[in-house]
């Protein structure tokens, strides 16, 4: 029997394009007039899209519309007149959505196709894997606007690139180019603009070939163990290693290997 490849585009959002290609969902943020800056409506739409991913999705790709910008930050026009409690609420709204991305039970790839500034860089950092185009620019320019990176940037940037570089990027607010982002480990690879989405899709598909529950457990282990003391982290991993043996995928994957077959994992 031939497997049917699901392929469609959802148009129910004002600022998002959702495309399904087999087990890969691509979420494209599309607010061209503001270089895809994140306002409350867009954050709400991303939140809804995350809650309504097609259940067959094994990898999510997040990118920005156009060739110039991934996300040029949080929407400065929405923030300009906020009071303290409103600033807190706006920051929490973004931080909660980004945490949802970070803890999603499937891998999320950021395909950074241009400016990833402020909230844009923070969005990329909430994803599991970042790749970018050669014209990408990363930065946390917030202190130049009188605020701090408030969508969890102070937390995640230091974790990803170390405190010294994170502090330099945040205190100066200066953007860096793609090759520098690669050098400091903020992205895993740089591609010519036209090659970015094919590369993201290829990466996604190579993840989709593996056992979905094992990939989900591996993501959970890496995320949770990072902040734990060594003994607790190792015990956490052992529990999830054990859980793998309660899955059909483990039985089928190992049986296929021993029979010199290829396993098509069911995620059970
Ligand atoms: N918010 C709102 N509008 C924006 C944003 C933004 N972040 N970025 C760009 N735009 C708009 C511009 O105002 C402009 O609109 P218009 O055409 O109406 O004048 C349009 O997009 C095109 O921008 P430019 O003409 O400036 O395009 P350039 O190619 O000249 O420059 C840049 C591109 C360098 C990206 C430039 O637009 C820029 O510096 N943008 C702002 C970048 C920035 O500072 N980002 C950080 C914002 S703060 C943030 O993200 C905080 C996150 C944590 C929030 C915590 C909440 C409490």
- What is the radius of gyration? 19 Å
Indicate the CATH architecture of the largest domain.
Alpha-Beta Complex
Stretches where pLDDT is under 50 for at least 5 consecutive residues are none
Mean pLDDT: 95
Assigned CATH class of the largest domain: Alpha Beta
Domain count: 2
- Total number of helical segments? 11
Strand order of the largest sheet: 1-2-3-4-6-8-11
The SSE order reads EEEHEEHHEEHEEHHEHEHHHH
- Give the helix proportion (percent range): 40-55%
CATH superfamily of the largest domain: 2-enoyl-CoA Hydratase, Chain A, domain 1
Q: What is the straight-line distance between the termini?
A: 20 Å
Write the CATH fold name of the largest domain. 2-enoyl-CoA Hydratase, Chain A, domain 1
Shape descriptor? globular
Largest sheet: 7 strands, mixed
Strand percent estimate = 15-25%
Bound small molecules, which ones? Answer: octanoyl-coenzyme A
Strand tally is 11
Task: Draw up the topology in text.
Layout: E1 7-10, E2 16-21, E3 24-29, H1 40-51, E4 59-64, E5 69-71, H2 76-79, H3 84-103, E6 108-112, E7 115-117, H4 119-126, E8 129-133, E9 137-139, H5 153-161, H6 163-172, E10 176-177, H7 178-183, E11 189-191, H8 193-208, H9 212-225, H10 230-244, H11 248-258
Parallel strand pairs: 3-4, 4-6, 5-7, 6-8, 7-9, 8-11
Antiparallel strand pairs: 1-2, 2-3, 9-10
The chain binds octanoyl-coenzyme A (CO8).
């Amino acid at each position: 029997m031939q497997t049917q490849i699901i392929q469609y585009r959802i148009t129910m959002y004002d600022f998002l394009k959702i495309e399904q290609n087999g087990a890969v969902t691509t979420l494209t943020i599309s607010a061209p007039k503001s270089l895809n800056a994140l306002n409350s409506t867009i954050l709400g739409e991303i939140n809804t899209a995350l809650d309504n991913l097609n259940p067959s999705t094994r990898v999510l790709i997040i990118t920005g519309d156009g060739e110039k910008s991934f996300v040029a930050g949080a929407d400065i026009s929405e923030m300009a007149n906020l009071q303290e409690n409103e600033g807190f609420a706006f920051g929490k709204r973004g931080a909660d959505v980004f945490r949802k991305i970070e803890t999603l039970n499937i891998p999320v790839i950021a395909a950074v196709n241009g400016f990833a500034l402020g909230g844009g860089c923070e969005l990329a950092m909430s994803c599991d894997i970042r790749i970018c185009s050669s014209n990408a620019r990363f930065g946390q320019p917030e202190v130049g606007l009188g605020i701090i990176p408030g969508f969890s940037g102070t937390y995640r940037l230091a974790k990803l690139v170390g405190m010294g570089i994170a502090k330099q990027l945040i205190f100066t607010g200066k953007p860096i180019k793609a090759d520098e982002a690669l050098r400091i480990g903020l992205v895993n690879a740089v591609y010519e603009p036209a090659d970015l989405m094919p590369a993201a899709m290829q990466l996604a598909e190579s993840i989709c070939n593996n056992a979905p529950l094992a990939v989900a457990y591996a993501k959970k282990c890496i995320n949770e163990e990072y902040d734990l003391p060594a003994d607790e982290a190792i015990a956490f991993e052992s529990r999830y290693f054990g859980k793998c043996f309660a899955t059909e995928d483990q039985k089928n994957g190992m049986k296929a290997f021993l029979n010199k077959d290829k396993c098509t994992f069911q995620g059970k």
